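Example record for the data management plan.
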Amino acid sequence: MHPDTKHLKSMSELAKLDIVLCSPRGFCAGVDRAIQIVELALQKYGAPVYVRHEIVHNKYVVDGLKAKGAVFVEELDEIPETDAPVIFSAHGVPKSVPANASVRNMFFLDATCPLVSKVHVEAQRLHNDGMEIVLIGHRGHPEVVGTMGQLPEGSISLVETALDAELFQPRDPKKLSFVTQTTLSVDDTAEIVSVLQRRFPEVRAPHKEDICYATTNRQEAVKRIAPLVDAMIVVGAPNSSNSMRLVEVAERSGCAKSVLVQRAAEIDWADFEGIGTLGITAGASAPETLVDEIIEAFGARYEISVSSHVTAREDIAFNLPRELRAATA
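Corresponding structural encoding:
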């Protein structure tokens, strides 16, 4: 219970608050698979299991896995000589990482989201076809680092904004292609792509949209709800690209009071004074238990009613690595 609850009014005095839950929200298939890989590796091989980078960008998830025996590192050189499994995060890694792991005879499991791996394969295919590649994404994000690290240095140029796209100068406009990070704003990416297509009409697009289904679905749900509510909470981490994009989408869609919250304890209650309706969604790496925690916190301060607005159904699941499939039997 929050320490301020001793000052709360009785239920009869509480203001009414309608909470609308965006659906889909929370875990996507790639995140669910990555977490399963760590948990099943711990179950099959015992602790410790080493994980390069946060398996997904959520402190609650990472802390829960640490408690079970996962050890998180940023680089392989932090891992001692070991027979324990080493797991690569859902965001993907440069080719140099599994190569270095092989040199050290490490047993590694790759938890890269299959939709990120699809972008890696696409980039490799374009490179093999002699194409210059533009990657639309955010500099420094581990997914971008991983995708750029699939090819020799200089093979991929990063474009972050429409202005970058206006200024970009290809070696040969007739041999230009683009791929994208999977967790971008759909609208921002469309704007950047339109600039590239206007300037370079022959630019080659991916065979299939690179922005993943979960990112698209969560943004669409927010677009529908944001104009209807007084405030919007996105449950997620500040280093989670897809969560940050949800806040931006909510603001652009008409909900000026849109905030990112990791846990209920972080809520600044002054931000929500006087509201009658609240939208709640969660980034693709945020577990539903954190949504429940936030609803409970509002329930202690308001007389709440909770409804769900469904804009899409998701039934996608990805296969686990061969080494772990027996552990699920």
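Summary line stored alongside the record: The longest helix spans residues 29-45.
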